[in-house]
What we know:
- By secondary structure, this protein is mostly helical.
- The chain has 15 helices and seven strands.
- The chain is globular.
- It starts with a helix and ends in an 11-residue tail after the last helix.
Amino acid sequence: MDYFEELSSIIKNTLNDKNLYYELKYLDEIEKLAKIVVDNTPKLKIKKYSNYVSLNESIINVIDFFDSFNKDYSNYFQNILREKQDNLNISRYSFNFNKRKEEHILGNSESRINGSVYINYSETLSDTYALVHEVTHKFSQPKNQNSTIKSFFGEASSIIMEFLMQDYLLNNKDYDLKEIIKEKEIRLFMTELTAENFIITNELIKLYKENNTITKDIFSKYLNGLNKNSNIFKVFMKSGTPCLEDILKSKTLNITLLERYLLGPVVASNIHEKIKNDPKNINILFDLVDIFSHTDITILEDLQKLESLDIEVIKNHEIDIDVITKKRLTKSYKKEVYDLLKNKTKGFFHIR
């Protein structure tokens, strides 16, 4: 099987996967979010954290942060730190801390399906963000890990917490400004990469549907037909080869992950703006965490609940991004980028 035959086979298998019904249904809507990201994310230079922050200090940062607006979250976090759980007769802490041997931009911490949280710490401010991100996932357990609603929106609440943590640190701690905003730089950098991969993947799916296959000639004709000044052509020139290589290596299009990590930051930016405009909107975040913590019976019920929270991307119980919604989401995402680049985030977080 040659390169393009294998690519066609992977796309065919994805389109025939009944478990991906909703992910495939909303591809074109979510591509609108990908284009918002690509069109409005400037080139970011990502650097490693440089200043020492002990793991204990990061834990205290998270406790202080939660104490500032939700004492229950603070108590949950501290209880989880002490909690032991039994899994296959192996007793261990729900939080497992592993010191990284060397500093990486991506920490690869995770909240696992068995309820344990793994924090690969580096003794930098990155640990503060990793802790608040992963414990927010933990707040949403138990939850059917394969639920459709969580596959779409599961990162939104954790990324909102990241953004609010940055506001809190800017307003209440004395860390170097560049260290505080570094996590958002990394987040937006990775979101742009995700958006590029999503656009390429969806274009490949559309190309396959049009031709019932993808050959070298079909692919070359498609690329040659693109406007050389268009963003989509630039995306293919920048990220086309590594994206295709990843697809062939993993034997999957990874559309579930791509959609999750696109919806997360864009929705988070929009809700973050709402909270900054009116602190009472913090209740949207609380409700999101609660929604993710129940076992969904049907995706319709979850979409109805999200729509009642005024989650912009949902209308009439569907993911639907019309012209007005796109403008609003673009505005909030651009503001997140602007505040980062101009160091204009003053530190907003005071809830009564």
